[in-house]
Design brief:
With 307 residues, this protein is mostly beta strands. It has three helices and 19 strands. InterPro entries: AA9 (IPR049892), AA9_LPMO (IPR005103), CBD (IPR000254), CBD_sf (IPR035971).
Length: 307
């Protein structure tokens, strides 16, 4: 029993992870450049805490004086590592399965805005499809988390919140482990034609949401998993907003929705991959056909995505 306890403790320690770097517009910026990196790689487990916004609290974050320029309509790569000095083969323990997500918030000053409160909209999610989890794809792809920046949003400064949720202990309340950091970015080249519905963080998750309180060990490869949080915003309007009352954010002019219970995802055929799901790549054995109207696009040799 003592040996098992030590092994469990070692596994838990290696499971921690940090979003340490952003690759954008063909440039790889130094570690911590433009990112509010924490001093500890542990999770946030209280979804109602302000720490769930850009990390902090038990993992004090270090401010950054840089803002990264990002072209609207491009794909950026959030780089995840176990620690700030870990290599690409040390991302997070493979047993820690769950979704990946990304959010944007338009701000006046990305250097100083805390991110707490309204203004956030989701731009990426990848949950569970035919036994494949979003976190597993990031781990298997050397820590790269692909995030499409919408082409139709306003230019200006934003916080980009990249997140991985580990659900190995989520069978009991407070067991889900949330990992997130915020990058400070300046989006250029957007058309400015869209005003996304926005949401408050904290507020997008509840401790008993079906995507937060879930026993993943009782799931089969075909089991449906409800990704937590609001729907993904898309420029073609295919995502739908919540039904709560709207509030106008004074800083951004965006419309903020009071978050209802997480919507059920649209069911897809058992051999059809949904939007943002993996649809191909080296050693990929899942569905290679995307749900209409999406097509399977090559991100790299290891990861193809429906978009």
């Amino acid at each position: 029993m003592k040996v098992l306890s030590l092994l469990a403790a070692a596994s838990a320690a290696s499971a921690h992870t940090i979003f340490v770097q952003l690759e954008a517009d063909g440039k790889t910026y130094p570690v911590s450049h433009g990112i509010r990196t924490p001093t500890y790689d542990g999770p946030i487990t209280n979804v109602a805490s302000n720490d769930v916004v850009c990390n902090g609290g038990p993992n004090p974050t270090t401010p950054s004086k840089e803002i990264i320029t990002v072209q609207a309509g491009t794909t950026v790569k959030a780089v995840w590592r176990h620690t700030l000095t870990s290599g690409p083969n040390n991302v997070m323990d493979a047993s820690h399965k769950g979704p990946t997500l990304a959010y944007l918030k338009k701000v006046s000053n990305a250097l100083t805005d805390t991110g707490i409160g309204g203004g956030w909209f989701k731009i990426q999610e990848d949950g569970h499809n035919n036994g494949n989890w979003g976190t597993s794809k990031v781990i298997n792809n050397a820590g790269l988390h692909y995030i499409d920046i919408p082409s139709c949003i306003e230019n200006g400064q934003y916080l980009l919140r990249a997140e991985m949720i580990a659900l190995h202990g989520a069978g009991s309340s407070g067991g889900a482990q949330l990992y997130m950091e915020c990058a400070q970015i300046n989006i250029v080249g957007g058309t400015g034609s869209a005003k996304p519905k926005t949401y408050s963080i904290p507020g997008i998750y509840k401790q008993n949401d079906p995507g937060i309180l879930v026993n993943i060990y009782s799931m089969s490869p075909s089991s449906k998993y409800t990704i937590p949080g609001p729907p993904v915003f898309t420029c073609d309007g295919s995502s739908s907003g919540g039904s709560g009352p709207a509030v106008t954010e004074p800083e951004t002019g965006f419309v903020t929705q009071v978050v209802p219970a997480a919507p059920e995802p649209t069911p897809v055929d058992s051999c059809t991959a949904a939007q943002w799901q993996q649809c191909g790549g080296t050693n990929f054995n899942g569905c290679t056909t995307c749900a209409s109207p999406y097509t399977c696009k090559t991100i790299n040799a290891y990861y193809h995505q429906c978009s």
